[in-house]
Amino acid sequence: MTDVNVILRYLLADHPEFSPQAAQFFEQVRNGAATALIPEGVLVECVYVLMKFYAVPRPEVAEKLSQVISYRGVVNPNREILLEALALLTRHAIDIVDAMVFVTAQHHGWTTFSFDQDIHKLERETDDSAG
């Protein structure tokens, strides 16, 4: 299982000791020589820390994390949902958890019960484009 700090050191290349270790590990993950379980909670925290603490622009966060999630050795049964949720970050001012709730509901044909207007706005846009 991969911790948030390992992903951050890899993406930011900001630590003289840990960043090279993370880069070496993720190079193996990229080509499938190693596996890395990246749970949803780790992805959520990465998005939050990159955007809020490091002020990385939303599209760059989505692009970089999508690349990592797409590596051959990354294990997550919800990979497609994670990638779609990250893609929503580039097109909408929605937080990652709301994006994941929306995409998960869409994938399963579920109705979303939420007081969050961002989710309802996405649902309306989806209904408009489908009809």
Structure description:
The chain is mainly α. The protein has one domain (4-129). It has helices at residues 4-12, 18-30, 40-53, 58-69, 79-91, 96-108, 117-130, and strands spanning 36-37, 74-75. This is PIN domain-containing protein. It comes from Entotheonella factor. Residues 2-123 form the PIN domain. InterPro entries: PIN-like_dom_sf, PIN_dom.
Strand content: under 5%
The first-to-last residue Cα distance is 42 Å
> Strand order across the biggest sheet?
1-2
- What proportion of the residues is helical, as a percent range? 55-70%
Categorize the overall geometry: globular
Averaged pLDDT, please? Answer: 94
Structural class: mainly alpha
Tally of individual domains:
1
H/I helix tally: 7
Instruction: Give the tally of β-strands.
Output: 2
Order of helices and strands: HHEHHEHHH
Give start-end ranges of low-pLDDT stretches: none
Major beta-sheet overview: 2 strands, parallel
- Whole-angstrom Rg: 16 Å
Brief synopsis:
The protein is mainly alpha-helical.
SSE blueprint:
Elements: H1 4-12, H2 18-30, E1 36-37, H3 40-53, H4 58-69, E2 74-75, H5 79-91, H6 96-108, H7 117-130
Parallel strand pairs: 1-2
Helix pairs in contact: 1-2, 1-3, 3-4, 4-5, 5-6, 6-7
